[in-house]
Task: structure prediction
Amino acid sequence: MQNDPLDVRCSDCGKAAQFFEPFRFTCVVRLPDVPEHSHVWGRVVVEELFPEQFKWHQPDCKKPKFLQPGETGEGYRLNERGMVWCKACKTFEAKTISWPEDAYWQWTVKGHKLVARNRDHAEQILGFLQESQRAPNRKPALRGIPTPLLTRRLQDEVSSKVEYALANA
Ligand SMILES: [Zn+2]
Result:
């Protein structure tokens, strides 16, 4: 489970803001004790990180299930409701986001959309684009890069866009 915060575009100032999931999900076997503000959902311990703003409501399914974008039914949807911290506005508020539409790091090149979770991820993507010898098996974090953007024809354009964004954010 990826627990690092997502970077979203602040709806007030347009700068990068951080989105935090309101719950931490940990496999039961890894925890010696169930922490305070926690619930057990099948084999997963769900910890409420912001219990004043977000209470856990157990989805109506016994086995933990995380819904993908566009998927309906019972389960928990990641990247939707959480706390958003904008350093520029100095606000920390409960919000609902649309992911990946609200992603701060996103580019469209020749109709192909590239999205990074946060600055670290954007840097990883840039590093990969600039490698002269790329490993044939992409790390999971890099599998979301649309293949056409990795071709010799487009990689320079993509790299320069990502590089520019990182330098100017
Ligand atoms: Zn802001």
User: Anything to note?
Assistant: The chain has two domains: 6-96, 105-168. Residues 6-96 form one domain.
